[in-house]
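Entry 12.
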Amino acid sequence: MAQAFPQSLNISNLKRKSVAVRNYRINVSADNGSSFGPGGTIKFNLPQLPRSYIDPQCMALRIKVTGGATATPATHLDKSAHSLISRVTQTCGGSVLSDVSEYNVLTAMLQDLQTQQLQAQSDGLLTIGMGGDVTARLQGTEINTTAKYFVIPLWCGINSAERLVSLDTSSPISYTFYLESAINCLRSAGTAAQGSAITNYTVQEAEIIGYVSEISQESQVLLQQSLGSLGYNVFYEDWTHISQTAASGSSKAVFNLALRYSALSQLLFCMRNSANLNNGNQFSISARSYGTLTNYSLMIGGQKMPSTGVRVGANNFGEVVSELGLSFGLFNDIVNPHSLNSIDISDGSTTNLFAVANGTIAAAGNGTHAYSDAVSGSFAAGLDLDGFKSGELNGIYSGMNTQSASMSVHCDFTSLPANMTFSFFGKFQCILSLDEVTGAYVSSV
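Predicted 3D structure (tokens):
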């Protein structure tokens, strides 16, 4: 076998200087107003700039949020400032580039799976109002008449692209953020009357922050020549959502999912108690339950995945957490960066939040936060559907083609609690292409 030097001794492989570029930050104000409330929408159009490219992974939504009068106990964000947003769409010239519904539910789940609790209570608190109560894993920061500013990273749709996105288009790239109802995204640990009194919040000074690189005319010509006949194409990942229910007391349930994509790479799902919705004393968005689930599997075109199913139980969550770790490249990571359990910083105690069966706070009105950790769960489940689990390392994607295949999730339960709503999220690969005729972006899935 031929011998080779390690990269640390590849002295001749010198870095090359980039082309001349002017980089600057943009602050794009909302197009449709200056003050927004629950159920409203905030719309933005990115600027159209010649020879200019925006870094999609360095974009954020900056907002100022105020709530109602200060209460005792206080009113908090359900999870973080992401909880304020129920849906995000991205469009260009009439083409839909991304449309993620139940955005706040998905984000809360991903935050638990990918953010350590101490991180949430440090920079997470400062940027997105996460982890505002050291004795309650779920609670965000307090919302009252004192204005709070949040800088919310944009991560879904084209913001997952690893290449710069051209702003030299005939139609602007447009973002629309749909705001959640106050009673769902805010929560009071006070009386039932205090919970039902949560009816409003105000969002102002909304703007998208981004970083733009402008190259010279000569560099633009060279770039166009390098693209050849394929033109401008950028890969990104996106999410889709389907909600379903099952009968109380069920021991089995089958959920048919119309997820038809050329490369479906991941399936996540969670269960929430629908009685928590429109209840200001509950964690309407982020409280998830395992619902006495004992096994789940995915059927695609008659093929069962995995063949034994994933086994689950009150003291048997290892397989579920391992499958989730596989989906995020953490399967063999002995220190997974997640906050699925609650760690009370005041006394160091830990609560197994995966073992919460129904996720409803029974003691609403006692004016404390302590019970929130006991019954508001963090359960999430999923399957990695990539053919090669290390595909990203090899510069490939290998999700399953489900365009012409039937697809269903099969679940077994001891006895499914009442009012369970199932939220299924599928992650799929997309190609963002700049149409040479119209000058606008289109998306292929």
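Annotation: The longest helix spans residues 103-114. Residues 51 and 415 are 60 Å apart (CA to CA).
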